[in-house]
Amino acid sequence: MKIEWHVVEVRGLRILLSQVILRISGVVMGRARKHPRGTMMGGEMDVVASSGATRNNVASSQSSRSDSQVNSQPQEQLEISTVPATTTSHGSTTPDTSSTSETRPLRNWNGDNPMGRVLGKGKSRIFDHTMLTQAHRWILAHVESVTPHKSLHIVAIKTETRNASKREIDSIHNATFHEWFKSYVHARENTDSFSEEVRRLAFGPMPHGRSYNACIVNNFRFRTKSRDERKATQNSGVILRASTNSYASAKNKNPLLGQVPYYGFLTDIIEIQYAYNMKFILFKCDWVDNDKGGLMEDVYHFKLVNFNRLMYRNNLPNDEPFILSNQAEQAWYVSDPMDTEWNVAVTMARRDDFDVYSRMYETEPYGNQMFDDRIPLNDDDANWVRDGVEGTLVDVNDSEHYDEDEDCDEVD
């Protein structure tokens, strides 16, 4: 064993560094046991090798264990700690708990909550009536347990307004469903068996909640736009792909259902709470108005958005600025150098996900190849002598045909 001590003085602080180099050849080291003086006893040593740690510090950290407890352990068991240690300004040692690529959690991990994982403690808020109504309407429209009740409400609207078009029925349904749903559940609470989720949703959200600046969901890290302005990166771009009834004009009575992308900036992250601690995380966004020329596609098939043409400027209760956090995809926007009012929208890919098959082109499969029967299947069937050519036989043992000087360099 070789022990080297180095004393380094940095800014008036004396740091004692010990480096223990153990050179053991053909010897099995038994269990190191504690000795009051830390001396060698019977081939065993009470020394813990750690950067910047003295034997006094190590002995004091193990004072809770008695000699009888140490000696009672079998010597065949060898317990070696491989956790690196760091030295504080007072000379004590603490384990190095810094994460590595193998021990750190997955980046942009959602956690166990399907709604995502908010970052930070957030701040408590009291939401106004308009914000609560907007958020509550969106939650009711996208919770699966409420879907059967939406169909009943549409039937009730058709009964009351027999001459209404589908567009008018949809408008009435979106504006009044949350009020109808509350009265419907309360009126039949004693007769119908509603689930606990339906009862809590019908009661409505609490006026108080929390707001946050960042959230991780769908393996994306989102930040609000105000938070993004102080960062070098951009994490506030949002895409919503919604199934929407599209009308060609105001007089059109036959809408087309399709997937429509909506682009926006994330402005707020709120947590809405219902009875019995049922919570939802929602994103409030500034959405580009697709119907008023806020979205277009150039000749190179890039999506361009104009944030001067936004939806819901008046902030009415029937507006829909909110989405559920798990409905969001991420995008980032690049200003168009030809026209600064327009921004190129680029869809972000999830971390560690790769698009492999969507851009693969279909090709015709190879046909069955017919091989010539004369092609040998293995070396034993191959004939390495040419046919039709007279060969030359050479006797390798004949020394007359071999001149040793031909392989030597001439020396003057």
From TrEMBL:
One Pfam family here: DUF4216
Biased composition (Polar residues): 74-85
Residue spans of biased composition, Low complexity class: 55-73, 86-103
UniProt domain DUF4216: residue ranges: 270-344
Top-level taxon of the source organism: Eukaryota
Sequence intervals crossing the membrane: none
Protein name from the UniProt record: DUF4216 domain-containing protein
Annotated organism of origin: Buddleja alternifolia
